[in-house]
Structures are given as structure tokens and as C-alpha cells.
Design a protein that fits this description.
A hairpin with a 2-residue loop joins strand 2 and strand 3. By secondary structure, this protein is of the alpha+beta class. It has nine helices and four strands; from the N terminus they run E-H-E-E-H-E-H-H-H-H-H-H-H. The longest helix has 19 residues. It has a four-stranded antiparallel beta sheet, with helices on both faces.
Length: 191
């Protein structure tokens, strides 16, 4: 039987590598590692758990105890994965996707997220999408139309309006800037 350990601040493939390596170095090789969670055969002893926590903290991660904090981290990880790492847009509503993935009622997830984070899941999703738009604009490899399609916006106008509302400038003005103001993924949505 496997057990899941939740890890805060895992936001990219390099995070997965770092966490995998940390577990392996402490002779606790994981079965699988995904954004925000590590699957292990046996739960680590208290002493190993302390060592894991110390080693992960030095890398900017944090072990989470099961409960509300872990659930919030899972919601964030699922959204980050969808916005930043999936090539195909979701075929179902985000609310349905989160409820299915976390085996929880969406209204419960939504209330918990809002009360803990101070913003709604939808606002967090929007902040992640805007940060992804900034990243894609910085690369200058795709047109605004291609970016809008990739991030499942209904139109360029919708993307542009949301971008301007969130950043105070149009996507075109952002692209023309010399210095692009961007956040790390774990900072997105923090006020």
C-alpha cells in the first residue's frame, strides 16, 4: 500500500527532480513524484521525516500535514500544471476537474481556498494564466492569437481585456517593454 506525502512550493519539473533527489539521498526512494505530492511505499519514521523537512526547507519546500493546507497546495498544483505544463486545454470546467481530481465537492474546495488564500480559485487561475501569457509574450515565438488559443481564451479581445485589467497594460505594450515584470509561480496569486 502506498502513502502520499504533500510538499508545498513544488511548481515545476525541476522541483520534482529536487524533491526526488532529496528523498533518494535520505534512503526513502519515492514511488512517484508529481507537483505537490510524493508517493512512498512506507511512511518515513519521525527521525527521517525531520531530516526530510530540514532538507526540503533548505530547497524552499515544506512538508505539509494532511488536511486543509495540503488540500490548498493540491488545488494550486493542479492549476499550475494545467496552465503551465499541459499542451491541450481542459475539456471540462475547472470546477469539475478539481472536484474529480481531489474527490471533494467543488463548493467545499472553493470556500476553503477563498477563506485560506483570500482570493477565489477563479482569481488564482486568472493570475496563473496572466503570468503564463507574460512568459509567452517574453519569448516572442507566438502570436497573441496563438497564445489566446493555447490558454483557452474565447478571443484575443478577452485575453487582452483580462491582461490589461490585471497588469494595467496591453499585451502589446508588455511585449515592447525592455524589462518584463514577472513572478515565480509560487508567488502568483499572493497579494
Amino acid at each position: 500500500m502506498s502513502h502520499t506525502i504533500y510538499v508545498k512550493n513544488m511548481v515545476c519539473p525541476r522541483c520534482i527532480q529536487a524533491v526526488t533527489q532529496t528523498f533518494a539521498e535520505l534512503h526513502e526512494p519515492p514511488l512517484t513524484v508529481a507537483l505537490g505530492e510524493v508517493s512512498v511505499q512506507n511512511l518515513p519514521s519521525e527521525a527521517v521525516n525531520t531530516q526530510l523537512n530540514t532538507a526540503l526547507n533548505q530547497l524552499g519546500f515544506e512538508l505539509l500535514s494532511p488536511g486543509k493546507t495540503a488540500l490548498i497546495a493540491q488545488i494550486k498544483s493542479l492549476i499550475i500544471d494545467q496552465v503551465h505544463y499541459q499542451t491541450a486545454p481542459l475539456r471540462i470546467n475547472l470546477s469539475t476537474y478539481l472536484a474529480e481530481q481531489l474527490h471533494q465537492d467543488y463548493s467545499h474546495l472553493s470556500r476553503l481556498f477563498s477563506s485560506t488564500e483570500g482570493i477565489t480559485i477563479e482569481k488564482y487561475l486568472t493570475a496563473q494564466k496572466i503570468e503564463r501569457v507574460k512568459e509567452l509574450l517574453t519569448y516572442e515565438e507566438q502570436t497573441l492569437s496563438e497564445i489566446a488559443h493555447q490558454l483557452n481564451y474565447s478571443s484575443i479581445a478577452h485575453l487582452s481585456a483580462q491582461f490589461k485589467k490585471e497588469t494595467g497594460m496591453t499585451p502589446t505594450a508588455f511585449r515592447k517593454q525592455k524589462k518584463h515584470d514577472r513572478k515565480t509561480l509560487d508567488q502568483v496569486g499572493n497579494t
